[in-house]
Structures are given as C-alpha cells and as structure tokens.
Amino acid sequence: MTLHHKNVTTKSIGKGRRSGFLEHDLRKLATSAAFINALIAAAMGAAVYVSLVIAPGTIGLLGAGLALIMLTIALIDGRSFIIPDWLNAAGIVLAMVYAAVREPEAMGQAVVVALLRGLAIALVIFLVRYGYAKLRGRQGIGLGDIKLAFVAGAWLDWVMIPFAMELAAFAALATYLLRQLVLKHPISARARMPFGLFFAPAIWICWAIEMRWADLF
Known about the structure:
mainly alpha, 84% helix, globular, disordered N terminus
C-alpha cells in the first residue's frame, strides 16, 4: 500500500511538473504575442502620426488610411501568404479619393489617370508572373501581389513606383539571407517569401517620401 501511494505521489509530481512547464510555455507565448502586438500597434500609430505631420488635412488622413491598410496587408501576408481582396480594394478606393482630392479642379481626369497607372503596373507584374511561370515551371508571384501593384500604381507617381518595388525586393532578399544565416539553413532559389510583407509598407514609405519631396520642391 505504501509503495502504491509513493507511485501515485511520483506520478502526481510528474504531472504537476509537466503542467508547470506547460503553463510556463503558455505564459512565454502569451508574452511574446503581446510584445509583437504592441510593436504592430506602435508601428501603426507611428505611421498615422507621420502621415498627418507630412501632409496635414484630408491628404494626411488618406495617407494614414493607406498606412493602416498596408501594415494590415503586411501582417496578414507575413502570417498566411495571403493578401485579402478587400484590403486591396480598400487601397484602390482610397487611391481614387486621394487622386480626386489632389486635383480638385480636374477630379475625373485625376481618377482616370490613377486607374490607368495602376492598371499598367498591374499588367507589367502580371507579365512578369507569366514569364516566370513559363521559365521556371512554377508560380513566383501571387495574384494578391498583382492587385497590390495596382494599389501602388494608383497611389504613387511614375518615378516612385520602381523605387517602391526595388525597396521591397531588397528588404525581402536581405531578410531571407539574414534568416538563413542566423538559423544556419541552406540558401535555396525555391524558397518562398511573402512579398506583400515588404511591398505593402514600401508603398506607404514611398508615398511619404513623395509627399515630403513635394514640400521641398
């Protein structure tokens, strides 16, 4: 009877330890998630603040809206490799309003130009996607990225569009190489990266630069 009691006690202790470890891991996970969420909230708040500072008024509010949409896209694409259509649609709608507000005396023309510019950029990225698939036998660019390119074209002037793409590509490549080096994993040409994670913030960054550049000149 005593031996049985000791076994039960030992098992209970083991279960207690495992439960303690589990609770500790859950607390660590919750703390980590809370920290990440706090960073995301801080980034969104900072982007909204910068938008309103560099472009006070309606333009700044629209820029703040762009910042929130782009950061949300980056967050979702980074986690699931998916860019929701409704977020791209929201970015396009804001772009039309933005174009109209910037050119109040020629609203219709400004909106049409923004739409055509977005369509042209999206078509270029679609052709790149098609060519890559033909060459490599697999898709390298998602349809969500093509729609996001439409958003970039609708928001940015011709000069800033390639800069946004280059900034995103450089950030994605640098992030991938750094991750592989830190984790000591081999570098592979077939590795997947969520391009929207980098392209979406680059769109807002280039918009902010564009606004600042317009103020200086």
